[in-house]
Structure formats: C-alpha cells, structure tokens
C-alpha cells in the first residue's frame, strides 16, 4: 500500500458518494412525479377538504419539493427512512426483514453461480476453439436470450407441476430442516443463476483469452510451465480486474433486478416489497427500496474498482 | 565435440490471416556443437525466430511442422508429447526474448519469475535457486544483485530486464540458450554492456547458443558461426570471420554492403555568405502545465540551438528519450515551442503549424518513422500523392495526374502502383510513398524522423541511396533524425549529438575531422558495433563514463 493507491481509492469513494447523491435526487424527483395523490388515496373518496389539508400539512406535503428533499436527505443520512404512508410502520422495519430474505437468496445464488461461472469461463478460454468451448458459448447465448420469466415459468411447469419435486411457491413449506431449505430455495436460485452466470462466463472467457495471448504467457510456456500453471499463475492474476468487474455487475442484479423471480415464486424479498409499495403509492417505502438497490449496486461496483486498482502491481509498487 | 543440435530438412507451414497456407521454412538443415554459438541472420520474415522456437519444440499458433526433424541432445523433439517437451524447456534449452519488458509477467516479482524454472522442474531447492540467481545477477553486472529480485518488472530499466531475462534462461543450467534479438530494443551504450554480460556468462559456462538477429555487427561479436537465412531457406553458412570477409552468396554480399554505407556526400561548394536555410534558436518545449514564464512542467527540450545551411544535411543522433523526435515535431510545429525561435530562410515561423503561412508549410515537410500509420489505408496511392498537389499547388485534372506519375518515377516506383492501397505495398515501398508525399509539396527542407528504423538493412540502404539521388536532382536539405549513427553518417555532413534534451555538440567535417570531442559523444560513437570480429573484446570504455551516461 502506498499513498498513490490510497489517493486513488479515496477518489473512487468520493465519486461513489457523489453518484449516490445524484441518485437520491433522481429517485426523489421520480417518486414525486408519480401520478396520483397519496393523501387522496389514504383518506379515500369521501374525505373532507379540511381533512385532506390537515393530513397534507402533517406529512409536510404542503412544503416546496426542494425543502422536502433536504428533509428526506437529512433523515436518510441519520438512517431514518421515514414512516410508511400505508400502515404507519417505520420503513426501516418493513425493509429490514425483507432485505435479509433477499440477501439470503442473493448469497446462496452467488455462492453457487460465481464458482461455476468462473470455472466454465476459464475452462472455455483454455480449451478455446474446442467442442467444450463452443458448447459453453452456445449454452450461454441461449440462456442470455431466454427471458427469466420464461426460465422461471418453465421451471415451475417441470419441477413443480409435472414432476412434483419442488413447491411452486417458496417459503410456504417448512424451512427449518436442510431439505426444506433446499426445496424452498432451489427454483429461485437456479433461475437467478442461469440469468447472472451467462454474462460472467462470457466476460471471464474474454479476459482470460486476452491475457493468454500476452508474451509473458508464451515465455512461461518456454520455461516449461504446464497449461494449468500458465493459466492460473500467469494469466489469471492479470485478468483479475475485468473478471471482478463482470462478477460485480452480475451480482448487483441480484438485489435490484429480481422482481420477476420474486413475484413468480412469491418469495418475500425486497423487490417484491417495492412492487407492493408502488401499488399503494407508499412513497417513503419506494424511495427507501430504490436507495437500497442503488446503494448495493454502487457498493459492488466500487469494490470491483478498488480490487482492480489494488491488483495492479504497477500501482501497488509505484 | 559432439553434436548438441541436429536440424534436418525442417519444413514449417503457416496459415495467413486470409486463410492461405504458405511454407515459411523450406527445408532447413544445420548442426550446433556443444558450447558453440551460432547466429541466425536474416531480414524480417526470413523465418529465423520460427526456427529458433522450433528448437524448443514450440511453434506459434497458426504454424505447423510439416517435415524434417529437430534432434536436441540425442532426443527427437517432434516425437515427444507436449508434457515431455515441457520438461526439456527451461532445463535443457531456454529462451531469451526480444522484449524482456513484455516477457516478464507484471504481476510477479522478478525473483519469483527467475526461479520459476527451478520450481517447475524441481531441479533444486528454491532457496538454493535464489542464491544462484543472485550469483547470476552479479555475473550479468546488474546493480544491487542482492535486492533487485525483490522488485517488480516495471521498477527496473529495459537494459536491466534484458539481463534479468538472461538470468532467467540460465538458472536451469541449460545446454542451449536461444537469444531472440535480445539487444534490438536497447540503446547502443546499453547494448555494449548487455552483450558483454551475455558473452562472459556463456563462455564461462560453456553453454551453446542460438543468436537470432538482423544485425551482422552485433552477431560478429558473439557468434562462432553464422547462418544467413532468406525466405525460409539457408543462403550461406560458415564461420563468422569467413562470412564477414569472404562472403560467397550474393545475398550475403548485399547484406554486408548495406552495412557499409558510403560516406556522406561532401557538398561541392560552401557559400558562407548565404543565409542558413534553417535556424533553431534556444528552443524549449515539453508537456504538462505551463508555469508563470510559459514553460511546461515536463521539459523535453531544454534550450536547443542549431543551424542548417542550404543544400546540406544535418543529422541528429541520440538515445531513446534524448528529445530528437520532439525536436522534429517542434520544428514542424506539431508540438509548439514554449520558448525560442525557428527561422526558415530567415523568415520566423509561428510555433504552431496552424498559424504558419501556406508557403512555410510547403517548404518544410516531415516524413514519419512508420509509413504504416502515416499513410491512410483507405486511400489509393494516387489520392495520397494528389492531396498535397491540390493543396499546395492547386493542381487538378491532367496536370496533377502527370505530376503523380513523375513523383512515382522520382522515388523509383512503377507508375501502375498509384491504383493500389498502402496495405498492398511492402514496407520499403510504403516508405518511398511517404517520401514522395513530402516531395509533392516541392519542399526545401525535409525532416526525416527515423525513416529507416523499421526497415530491413538492405531496404533501408536503398532508401538512403534514394535520398542522396533526390538531393542531387532537387537541391533539397534533410534534417535526418535517427538512433542509428552509421545511417546518419552515410547521409549527413554535420551531426548534432543530443542527450537528455540538450545539444551535447555539433560535429562538423572541418573541425577535428568530424570526430566527437565531448565525453558523451565519444561514448556514444564508440558503442556502435563494428563489422569485425573482436571489436567488443577490444573495446576499451571508461567505466566511469559508462556509469555516468549510459541509461541502463
């Protein structure tokens, strides 16, 4: 570690924080622009104008948007996500439980798909041009091309309806035993793994092929290194940056982009919570969910960038 | 002495990008004795590297051995499995690459990569290998031999990396070391040191070597025998002294002739009264932020002055990073000077070419090193040459067509070439077109920036001859920039020596007979390899001087 690296990492974190601020502005503007009046929805058709005005004042909705934004931002900075319009429960509490569920699903999917994807990507790169490589290429293209609701629906038809091995809905049966847990997670995890692995496989393959053509890999061959050593010891450390970025991009999808999968399998995750919040015009909840998605995304990308910086020996030993 | 290497009727095919199959090695046979150093000499595309790599049982992707045998220490390489070949690489035969900078993995320390051979083959304990590596570093005259291994490749210089790659090749006690143009990318003062280190270590260990190079003068210092290759065939093979002094084959004679360029043409008359064609006075230029005085933070040129008389040529020599190419860019106005003035025929030139008058632009043309990047690949030769004719002289229609034919005649190229594109031309032909474009403007001064560096020796010599002929016909002047002192001397009557952005001295034929007087110029000139055996062994350089100036 040296001052150059620390400076670059600090700079990267500042950029992340600024992006987060811009994201907050965009989210606030977007939710403010959502059609429909919350107060009207909350109080129903028969509300008196006085009641509407009173509630509006109580919810600070009569104040200018800029002021409301600053207030929201201040609360956000202190960890207060506000109170749900619909049921008066703090948003943090609502999200907390669901976020844990989503993280569990994401964690299991990542633990399964990242090693598989990296292995397949590296194998395809080593066996470039062979039958294995082409098979992997065809399968990944096919998986990318099929939309995830297709995969999910087909999985339900095959495993739940026809074979009857797995429940069609997650979290219905008991999740206290290992077998029950596997049953509950199996289909969402498989569907999500399909979606995120394809991209990782392709990017890993490209990055490893790129470094395998470097002169220092040929030099390793001429030193008598085995293929395994050439790839693992010589090519991979130099392909780390692009691979970590591909992994981060794919994983970020697991938090924000799983709406379809959570809906189809009725999985009580944060994406489904946000979908429900949109239906009820629950602005603080929507904003809270959106901020968490964006934060998770930025966090992963920032980590990937920092890994790229730290893994560069030219920067590490400048 | 027993035979270490036997190559019999080796044939290798390659598949081109277009999918065509060509035979690049056409039946090559030779032997190498134990402890003998054999040079493979040839121009680019002669197959010298392909042969050398095949001695290790390795062919690059796209190439295939179609016939013949390579026997190394009694074992036929072609009959082995890939795993058995891998066991011989690094331990019996090892490789020193052309660009050590690219051949070292940026992710690992130098020591890790040097002892990797031992780690792979398990030939000795790693701790022992480290001690041996330090000994090799010392034998190869590397600075700080105890600690240099802890560094990463980007932390040491190119000349050091080249010697470190030799240590990497020698650590496994091979019987044969293959050197693939190991000093081509180095400056001459560095090359002397590296060659000396190689030679000492090889001789001490009695190790056989294959030295691949295009440079006869370098090979003359290190090889026992020379094999001259062309188009994948052996033209001539013999002892080094015989090849150099009694060449039999016409191609070998041609190569040797290209290495002994004639002396610079002395101008017939020197009119002292006439104003100089080009005056550069106190020029400062560089990159980065400008300070309060308008001077850039990173100064590449630190106050350079020179004069060039009409009809004469001025050479600029120096090692990489001395600022010679920057000087050409500053004179051409591509990089505006921060300070100082440039006068052409007494007229001051604006620092930025965009502010120069059309006649100034016309009179001063620049020819770049790489014709590949300087010529638009999508335009025909006719279009490339027609553009300056229209721009500077307003020529159009039939007069322009006639002038294009004339220009092709001037650079000795057939007229039908005008319908081709640059991609269909050879390297030498492209460089002639590059030159013809400068001639199209009817320039008075042509800046030649390393225009022969990317060309094979014979082709480069022909370009130099062309430059001389054109000068006689058109009363041109050249500012000739090159790291190759022999080439500069072949065409220039005066030579400016540069070092770290400053002019060290200007050599004139009428002062000290054109010989250098300053310590750095003397070191630089004495480091240029000469085409006789024993030059390196007889070369006496002041070690203090070398340490002070050589950028290794």
From TrEMBL, chain A:
<feature type="transmembrane region" description="Helical">
    <location>
        <begin position="285"/>
        <end position="310"/>
    </location>
</feature>
<keyword id="KW-0812">Transmembrane</keyword>
<comment type="similarity">
    <text>Belongs to the binding-protein-dependent transport system permease family.</text>
</comment>
<feature type="transmembrane region" description="Helical">
    <location>
        <begin position="178"/>
        <end position="196"/>
    </location>
</feature>
<feature type="transmembrane region" description="Helical">
    <location>
        <begin position="139"/>
        <end position="166"/>
    </location>
</feature>
<feature type="transmembrane region" description="Helical">
    <location>
        <begin position="105"/>
        <end position="127"/>
    </location>
</feature>
<keyword id="KW-1133">Transmembrane helix</keyword>
<dbReference type="GO" id="GO:0055085">
    <property type="term" value="P:transmembrane transport"/>
</dbReference>
<dbReference type="Pfam" id="PF19300">
    <property type="entry name" value="BPD_transp_1_N"/>
</dbReference>
<dbReference type="InterPro" id="IPR035906">
    <property type="entry name" value="MetI-like_sf"/>
</dbReference>
<dbReference type="InterPro" id="IPR045621">
    <property type="entry name" value="BPD_transp_1_N"/>
</dbReference>
<feature type="domain" description="ABC transmembrane type-1">
    <location>
        <begin position="99"/>
        <end position="304"/>
    </location>
</feature>
<dbReference type="Pfam" id="PF00528">
    <property type="entry name" value="BPD_transp_1"/>
</dbReference>
<feature type="transmembrane region" description="Helical">
    <location>
        <begin position="12"/>
        <end position="34"/>
    </location>
</feature>
<keyword id="KW-0813">Transport</keyword>
<dbReference type="InterPro" id="IPR000515">
    <property type="entry name" value="MetI-like"/>
</dbReference>
<dbReference type="GO" id="GO:0005886">
    <property type="term" value="C:plasma membrane"/>
</dbReference>
<keyword id="KW-1003">Cell membrane</keyword>
<feature type="transmembrane region" description="Helical">
    <location>
        <begin position="239"/>
        <end position="265"/>
    </location>
</feature>
<keyword id="KW-0472">Membrane</keyword>
<protein>
    <submittedName>
        <fullName>ABC transporter permease</fullName>
    </submittedName>
</protein>
TrEMBL record, chain B:
<keyword id="KW-0813">Transport</keyword>
<protein>
    <submittedName>
        <fullName>ABC transporter</fullName>
    </submittedName>
</protein>
<dbReference type="GO" id="GO:0005524">
    <property type="term" value="F:ATP binding"/>
</dbReference>
<dbReference type="InterPro" id="IPR003439">
    <property type="entry name" value="ABC_transporter-like_ATP-bd"/>
</dbReference>
<dbReference type="InterPro" id="IPR027417">
    <property type="entry name" value="P-loop_NTPase"/>
</dbReference>
<dbReference type="Pfam" id="PF00005">
    <property type="entry name" value="ABC_tran"/>
</dbReference>
<keyword id="KW-0547">Nucleotide-binding</keyword>
<dbReference type="InterPro" id="IPR003593">
    <property type="entry name" value="AAA+_ATPase"/>
</dbReference>
<dbReference type="Pfam" id="PF08352">
    <property type="entry name" value="oligo_HPY"/>
</dbReference>
<dbReference type="InterPro" id="IPR013563">
    <property type="entry name" value="Oligopep_ABC_C"/>
</dbReference>
<dbReference type="GO" id="GO:0005886">
    <property type="term" value="C:plasma membrane"/>
</dbReference>
<dbReference type="InterPro" id="IPR017871">
    <property type="entry name" value="ABC_transporter-like_CS"/>
</dbReference>
<feature type="domain" description="ABC transporter">
    <location>
        <begin position="5"/>
        <end position="256"/>
    </location>
</feature>
<dbReference type="InterPro" id="IPR050319">
    <property type="entry name" value="ABC_transp_ATP-bind"/>
</dbReference>
<keyword id="KW-0067">ATP-binding</keyword>
<dbReference type="GO" id="GO:0055085">
    <property type="term" value="P:transmembrane transport"/>
</dbReference>
<comment type="similarity">
    <text>Belongs to the ABC transporter superfamily.</text>
</comment>
<feature type="domain" description="ABC transporter">
    <location>
        <begin position="278"/>
        <end position="525"/>
    </location>
</feature>
<dbReference type="GO" id="GO:0015833">
    <property type="term" value="P:peptide transport"/>
</dbReference>
<dbReference type="GO" id="GO:0016887">
    <property type="term" value="F:ATP hydrolysis activity"/>
</dbReference>
């Amino acid at each position: 570690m040296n001052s150059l690296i620390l400076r670059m990492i600090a700079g990267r974190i500042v950029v992340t924080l600024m992006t987060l601020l811009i994201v907050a502005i965009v989210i606030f503007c977007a939710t403010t622009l959502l059609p429909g009046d919350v107060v009207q929805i909350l109080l129903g058709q028969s509300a008196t104008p006085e009641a509407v005005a009173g509630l509006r004042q109580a919810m600070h909705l009569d104040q200018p948007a800029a002021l409301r934004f600053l207030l929201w931002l201040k609360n956000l900075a202190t960890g207060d996500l506000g109170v749900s319009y619909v049921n008066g429960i703090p948003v943090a509490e609502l999200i907390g439980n669901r976020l844990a569920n989503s993280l569990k699903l994401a964690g299991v999917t990542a633990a399964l798909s990242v090693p598989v994807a990296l292995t397949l990507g590296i194998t395809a790169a080593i066996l470039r041009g062979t039958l294995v490589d082409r098979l992997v290429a065809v399968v990944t293209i096919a998986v990318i091309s099929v939309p995830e609701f297709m995969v999910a629906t087909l999985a339900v038809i095959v495993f739940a309806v026809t074979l009857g091995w797995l429940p069609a809905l997650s979290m219905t049966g008991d999740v206290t035993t290992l077998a029950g847990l596997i049953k509950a997670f199996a289909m969402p995890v498989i569907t999500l793994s399909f979606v995120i692995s394809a991209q990782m496989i392709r990017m890993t393959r490209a990055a490893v092929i790129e470094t395998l053509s470097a002169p220092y890999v040929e030099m390793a061959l001429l030193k008598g290194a085995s293929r395994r050593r050439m790839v693992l010891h010589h090519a991979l450390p130099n392909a780390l940056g692009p691979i970590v970025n591909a992994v981060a991009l794919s994983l970020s999808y697991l938090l924000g982009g799983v709406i379809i999968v959570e809906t189809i399998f009725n999985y009580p995750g944060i994406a489904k919570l946000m979908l429900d919040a949109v239906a009820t015009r629950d602005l603080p909840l929507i904003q809270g969910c959106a901020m968490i998605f964006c934060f998770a995304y930025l966090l992963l990308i920032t980590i990937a960038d920092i890994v790229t910086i730290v893994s560069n020996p030219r920067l590490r030993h400048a | 002495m027993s035979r270490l290497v036997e190559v019999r009727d080796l044939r290798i095919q390659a598949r081109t990008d277009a999918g065509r199959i060509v035979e690049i090695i056409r039946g090559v046979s030779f032997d190498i004795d134990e402890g003998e150093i054999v040079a493979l000499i040839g121009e680019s595309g002669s197959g010298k590297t392909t042969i050398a790599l095949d001695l290790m049982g390795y062919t690059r992707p796209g190439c295939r051995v179609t016939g013949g045998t390579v026997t190394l220490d009694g074992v036929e390489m072609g009959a082995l499995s890939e795993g058995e070949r891998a066991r011989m690489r690094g331990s019996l035969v090892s490789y020193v690459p052309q660009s050590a900078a690219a051949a070292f993995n940026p992710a690992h320390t130098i020591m890790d990569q040097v002892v990797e051979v031992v780690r792979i083959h398990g030939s000795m304990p790693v701790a022992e290998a480290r001690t041996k590596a330090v000994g090799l570093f010392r034998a190869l005259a590397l600075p700080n031999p105890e600690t240099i291994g802890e560094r990463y490749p980007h932390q040491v210089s190119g000349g050091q990396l080249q010697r470190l790659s030799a240590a990497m090749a020698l650590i496994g006690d091979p019987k044969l070391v293959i050197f693939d143009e190991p000093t081509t990318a180095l400056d001459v003062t560095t090359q002397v040191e590296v060659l000396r280190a190689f030679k000492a270590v090889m001789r001490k260990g009695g190790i056989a070597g294959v030295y691949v190079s295009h440079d006869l003068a370098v090979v003359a210092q290190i090889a026992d025998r020379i094999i001259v290759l062309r188009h994948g065939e052996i033209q001539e093979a013999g002892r080094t002294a015989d090849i150099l002094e009694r060449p039999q084959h016409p191609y070998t004679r041609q190569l040797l002739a290209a290495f002994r360029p004639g002396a610079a043409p002395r101008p017939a008359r020197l009119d002292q009264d006439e104003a100089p064609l080009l005056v550069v006075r106190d020029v400062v230029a560089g990159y980065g932020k400008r300070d309060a005085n308008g001077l850039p933070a990173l100064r590449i040129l630190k106050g350079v002055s020179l004069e060039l008389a009409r009809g004469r040529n001025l050479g600029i020599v120096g090692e990489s990073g001395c600022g010679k190419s920057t000087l050409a860019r500053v004179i051409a106005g591509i990089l505006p000077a921060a300070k100082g003035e440039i006068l052409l025929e007494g007229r001051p030139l604006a620092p930025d070419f965009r502010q120069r008058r059309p006649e100034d632009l016309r009179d001063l043309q620049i020819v770049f090193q790489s014709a590949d990047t300087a010529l638009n690949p999508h335009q025909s030769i006719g279009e490339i040459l027609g553009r300056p004719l229209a721009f500077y002289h307003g020529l159009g229609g039939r007069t322009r067509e006639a002038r294009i034919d004339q220009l092709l005649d001037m650079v000795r190229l057939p007229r039908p070439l005008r319908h081709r594109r640059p991609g269909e031309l050879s390297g030498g032909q492209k460089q002639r077109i590059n030159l013809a474009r400068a001639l199209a403007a009817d320039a008075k001064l042509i800046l030649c920036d390393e225009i022969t560096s990317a060309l094979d020796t014979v082709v480069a010599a022909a370009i130099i001859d062309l430059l001389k002929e054109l000068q006689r016909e058109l009363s041109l002047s050249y500012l000739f920039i090159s790291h190759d002192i022999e080439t500069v001397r072949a065409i220039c009557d005066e030579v400016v020596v540069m070092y770290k952005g400053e002019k060290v001295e200007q050599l004139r034929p009428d002062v000290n007979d054109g010989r250098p007087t300053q310590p750095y110029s003397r070191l630089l000139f004495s480091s240029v390899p000469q085409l006789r055996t024993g030059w390196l062994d007889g070369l006496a350089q002041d070690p203090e001087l070398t340490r002070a100036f050589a950028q290794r």
